[in-house]
Amino acid sequence: MESRTQKSEPARRRFIGRALGLVLATGVTLSAIPLVRSLLPSRSRQIAGAPIEVDLDTISPGEQILITWRGKPIWILRRTSEMIQRLRISDLEARLRDPLSQQDQQPPYARNDLRSIHPDILVVIATCTHLGCIPKFHPETGQMGFDSEWPGGYFCPCHASKFDLAGRVFKGVPAPLNLVIPPHRFTDHNTVIIGEGPVVE
Predict the structure, then answer these.
(1) Which Gene3D superfamilies did the record assign (predicted)?
(2) What 3-state class would DSSP assign to 73?
(3) Residues 6+ apart with CB under 8 A from 77
(4) Domain ranges, ordered by start, for the chain
């Protein structure tokens, strides 16, 4: 005659097997959580990559501000009417590698002589397209140590690349391309969103 212990042995084994399976499944699930979390962007990364809104009211004509978006320095220049006129002089265009900004490097709304949505506002990434140095802003005109007929613009002290006040690169310098225009759009003339392009209707 089978003892009570022998009869309950298969049931006990099934219970232990199910319990071990549950523990194993729980362990696998819990160990996967950190892996899944590491693959998702952190809150700070989401914020760092998010579009940012900039109020342009504080920028006077002829002045420029520096902001950071996605870890990149961004210049926003409010050009004067005189600066805009200088950008359209044919003598200057003859010195530029890509005067009409036709290269595929810039978004469609910046493929023009001013490389901007509004003529007076330039939004540009502040790194030289040669090796990533930050050029110096020289809005003044005339004879400079690096150019005898400087029209105003940006000069990179690292390897002497030159860009005009639209970020267009000069001929004969190490930088191969214009300064990069980041995606941006305006909600009104004095508010720009960096990180989003214009809404296409």
Answers:
(1) Rieske [2Fe-2S] iron-sulphur domain
(2) strand
(3) 59, 63, 64, 121, 122, 124, 137, 165
(4) 1-40, 47-194
Q: Over the stretch 73-126, which tens digit does the pLDDT of each residue have? A: 999 999 999 999 999 998 899 999 998 887 777 889 988 889 999 999 999 999
Contact at 8 Å (CB) between 127 and 73?
yes
- Residue with the bigger pLDDT between 37 and 57: it is 57
Query: Which superfamily does CATH assign the domain made up of 47-194 to?
Result: Rieske [2Fe-2S] iron-sulphur domain (2.102.10.10)
189 is catalytic: no
Q: Which residue has the tokens 């900004």?
A: 101
- How many degrees, rounded to 5, is the angle at CA 107 between CA 103 and CA 112? 65
Catalytic residue among 118, 138, 159, 184: 159
Tell me how far apart the terminal alpha carbons of the chain are, to the nearest angstrom.
Answer: 86
In this prediction, residues 176-191 reach a mean pLDDT of: 95
pTM recorded for the entire structure: 0.74
